[in-house]
Amino acid sequence: MLIEVGARARQAARTLARLSTEAKDRGLNLLADALIAHQAVILAANQADVRAAQQAGLSPAMVDRLTLTPARLEGIAADVRSVASLPDPVGETFESKTLANGLRAHKRRVPLGVLGVIYESRPNVTIDVAGLALKTGNAVILRGGSETLRSNRALVEVVHQALRAANLPVDAVQFIDDPDRARVTELLHLDAYVDLIIPRGGNPLHEFCRHNSSIPVITGGIGICHLFVDETVDLNAACRVIHNAKTQRPTVCNALDTVLVHRSRAAEFLPALVQMLSADGVVFRADPSALAFLASTPGPKNAAAADRDLALPESVRLAGPQDFDTEWLSLVLGLKVVDSLAEAMEHIHLHSTGHSDGILTSNEENARRFMEEIDSALVYVNASTRFTDGSQLGLGAEVAISTQRLHARGPMGLRELTTYKWVVVGDYHVRG
């Protein structure tokens, strides 16, 4: 079934690779306009998906990821326009040199070719990927989750309308409409036509793609994110950053999962943090090192606490064995007290997924050490982990957040969807 899809995508990719920037940008702007013009149809399809997801008992986090609203759709359209406004990396030349024998050589950016993107829950990925692929001259084969089937059908139809209006190949964006999971396996073996697989979803999806694909796989997007509050921090400022990182949108991969606090500031900081975040519905999984500092926190006490003598707040529970290795995707936050920057970094080395980790500090040496020694895709100093986002970092949007070391790390925007070729120009040179 998918061989024909792959063949059409490969042919479309050859056409896209020759397009001018102006032609691609026109298609993107038409797509942004079409998303707003067809808003009613898209939102109706999405509401049907949301109702089905709720009836099926999907978690609130999954339902939130699935949901489109007029504001979210406007944001998606704005991201498409932003991508259109960005410089086109395709055709860029770099590392030019003239060799001793007179040969002139340079590298030139070219599209990757055909992308296979497998994703769950988020219908915005359909448009983010389509827009980034079009700008970079890549064709794409999309396979969304069954829970977003109606939404994705509506969105892909809008994409195709925009491509037709711009006289661009409709096969540049194809959608696997069959919810049968066998189609995923089939896509993973379409190596004659697909150049890169990009999974967007939970760890089981990433593991399945890694173990079953005959095509290179970009993995990432699983975030167990940390912030370390050191002994020199501005506590009020730290509270604001942590509040944003945890509560602004807790169901996404760049939301905060664990706060590490230097022991010298724990008595002052932890009760204030718990009181502030509890008001927004956050509940806590506290390491034993943090429990004693929370007994004096104002508010209702937890009668079922592991250590009743501490009279812990209702929102606090003793952390379990796996809690610091859990991506919460909800209003749950881990707490731990450490004695040094070295201990904080060791905890991050043991428990981080290499996504987004940061330090809150007024000490330049601590900041420098943290930046040098923490090897996550994004390392923050005095900023919320919520900035791990292609749009926030000036990329327009992203096709994925890569946590691996090869080819690309962090948000994958336009440049990360290109490769390069060597171009060598001579004067009828021969090698001696």
Q: Top keywords for this entry?
A:
7-stranded parallel beta sheet; globular; alpha/beta; 432 residues; Aldehyde Dehydrogenase, Chain A, domain 1; Aldehyde Dehydrogenase, Chain A, domain 2; 2 domains; single chain; 4-stranded parallel beta sheet
SSE diagram, text form:
Elements: H1 2-17, H2 21-37, H3 39-55, H4 60-66, H5 70-85, E1 93-98, E2 104-111, E3 114-119, H6 124-135, E4 139-143, H7 149-165, E5 173-175, H8 182-188, E6 196-200, H9 203-212, E7 225-229, H10 235-247, E8 256-262, H11 263-278, E9 283-286, H12 288-291, E10 316-318, E11 332-338, H13 341-351, E12 356-360, H14 364-373, E13 378-381, E14 401-402, E15 410-411, E16 418-425
Parallel strand pairs: 3-4, 3-6, 4-5, 7-8, 7-12, 8-11, 9-10, 9-11, 12-13
Antiparallel strand pairs: 1-2, 2-16, 14-15
